[in-house]
Amino acid sequence: MSVRIAIDCMGGDHGLAVTVPAAVSFLSHVPDVRLLLVGREAEVRAALAGFGGADLSRIEVRDAPEVVAMDEPPASALRSKRKSSMRLAIEAVKSGEAQACVSAGNTGALMAISRFVLRMLDGIDRPAIAAPLPNQRGGVTTMLDLGANVDCEPEHYLQFAIMGAALVSVLEGRDRPSVGLLNIGEEAIKGNDSVKQAAELLRASSLNFHGNVEGNDIYEGTTDVVVCDGFVGNVALKTSEGLARMLNGIIREEFSRNLLTKGAALLSMAVLKRLKDRVDHRRYNGASLVGLRGIVIKSHGSADAFAFEFALRRAYDAARNGLLERIAQTLPQLTAEAHAGATGMPPQPSEPPGAVR
Amino acid sequence: MSVRIAIDCMGGDHGLAVTVPAAVSFLSHVPDVRLLLVGREAEVRAALAGFGGADLSRIEVRDAPEVVAMDEPPASALRSKRKSSMRLAIEAVKSGEAQACVSAGNTGALMAISRFVLRMLDGIDRPAIAAPLPNQRGGVTTMLDLGANVDCEPEHYLQFAIMGAALVSVLEGRDRPSVGLLNIGEEAIKGNDSVKQAAELLRASSLNFHGNVEGNDIYEGTTDVVVCDGFVGNVALKTSEGLARMLNGIIREEFSRNLLTKGAALLSMAVLKRLKDRVDHRRYNGASLVGLRGIVIKSHGSADAFAFEFALRRAYDAARNGLLERIAQTLPQLTAEAHAGATGMPPQPSEPPGAVR
């Protein structure tokens, strides 16, 4: 089946300067994909004109006179930007013209509009944001929620786990992905009530539930999926970004300290390049907004064309491998199981699993 | 004034093998400190005997026949280990024989026993765990709570801020340290209710409140103090540990890939050494349990002697610079101000400060 992806060409910090080159490059790498470029038509066509060799037969341009600003309040974007590139890209998914859409625009607006246009799957209240993070096993750990749901009921963690597992089985090709519940290690005070009850639900489901994990397990790759509330997930993600940036700055500083260290840097160039590649956050670009009746991928706002193409690849893989069908299939069954199991037994104190010292 | 520090010599993964060498080394570096070594007396003396040159005139050994195990439930340690090295070290602070105590033992037990023996400061419910993290400005960001308080009321964040600011002014010598409230950036859903109300209290106090900060601000050093609930703080800390370990592993792997890269490593040795030193977590060892009527410093359980000595240094600095007096002085006034200010005005939606994009 040929997949068509709708791209919000105006979104992100760089708009057309990133989205159009990424689209053209993606077309050249994936022979059977088609793209719907949504944005101010004249500008999109002008950007495309720069690429003489692009296969225009697989591109369609759709005019969208409006643009959602990066700092626009979601409610205002939803109400007053009905002809925005973001809105029309999402509507192309709703109408079936595209099987997925990708935007680097304002996250809050993307969530609000997606939710309004596409609607949620039965039994899901809000979209969750899921993204892959590199781990030391050389694979990725998929983490959710990364900021959409600040206060979570036990039920929500279960939903995140089901959607996360479906995402990993579809995108990473894992059979029965393992799921960890993010918690803290301190024995006396392990977890808050929601997390403790969530563990009960997860244990009662037929998901491959590993048990509690701690922050370090994200990068150790202890489980394929890590679930947490959106506040915690967002802090963990941004803390990681800050730490990586600091370490990168220190490496740079130390290697450029004097002539000797500059010489060492020259000789270590190949190593430093590989190092950089292996932890290049651009390769992990493309968060999934899950729980919607359609595939929506959020690129980092500051993504360059290289990074944006990874987001396009994720949208393509999710659509081609039937992410929505997978979630829709497993959600009702796993939810029913969890509730039957968890209510069938008295609430128990959550026990420390192997991952918790 | 000469300061005396009580050391739980049996605590931690390595016990006497770490605590005694660290104590002897610390004595040799700090001329006016005295130490009370608490543990099984014969074993402590045997360990001390290995150090011929130690200034024994500044050391006193106190026998404690029992040891709190690293995995012992706090309640059991509290009830049944009344002659443990941990308990007697804390009791030496209570009696005034020591001005601070340091333990690398079981965190939960240390908190429970400290709270029971020393009692909390007026108006503080539980101890909070505060620790310094390196930031890219070359200084440290002091973060709390790191795991003691899972569910926090707005009031608790204010208490953390007051205690964190006192800690930084005493330990880092900063006048009016800036305080950030850890939050998430997503516009539509900024923060949960507790955090929003906490921002009101902080704004109404005369603390140097910067406003909301995000995870990346911890390592950017945007503020001197970052306050958050213990769940979030613990996850941020452990996530950082996991990421740092992964990056360290990758650097090692890439530099030992083949003869060429090994040669590059040899030539980069000085750089790699400096790099390692700058982010050496051992230099930041020593978390403060704040809110107690006494100074208690928690060393990492796996600390080596080098790291444990840093924890001793923190205890010494906190005692010598009057941490408790500073907190006791500022707590009532700042609390009263915050409540007068916050209740004097109607609750307002928290506004995004500069740090939030």
Automatic annotation (TrEMBL), chains A, B:
* Catalyzed reactions: a fatty acyl-[ACP] + phosphate = an acyl phosphate + holo-[ACP]
Gene Ontology biological-process entries: fatty acid biosynthetic process; phospholipid biosynthetic process
Q: Which SUPFAM superfamilies match?
A: Isocitrate/Isopropylmalate dehydrogenase-like
Give the UniProt entry's GO cellular component terms: cytoplasm
In which compartments does the protein localize?
A: Cytoplasm
Q: Which keywords label this protein?
A: Acyltransferase, Cytoplasm, Lipid biosynthesis, Lipid metabolism, Phospholipid biosynthesis, Phospholipid metabolism, Transferase
Q: What broad class of enzyme is this?
A: transferase
Q: Which InterPro entries match?
A: FA_synthesis, Phospholipid_synth_PlsX-like
The record's section on Gene3D superfamilies has: Isopropylmalate Dehydrogenase
HAMAP family per the UniProt record, alphabetical: PlsX
Q: Give a short account of what the protein does.
A: Catalyzes the reversible formation of acyl-phosphate (acyl-PO(4)) from acyl-[acyl-carrier-protein] (acyl-ACP). This enzyme utilizes acyl-ACP as fatty acyl donor, but not acyl-CoA.
Quaternary state and interactors: Homodimer. Probably interacts with PlsY.
What's this protein's family per the entry?
Belongs to the PlsX family.
The name under which this protein is listed is Phosphate acyltransferase
Organism field? Quisquiliibacterium transsilvanicum
Tell me the organism's taxonomic lineage: Bacteria, Pseudomonadati, Pseudomonadota, Betaproteobacteria, Burkholderiales
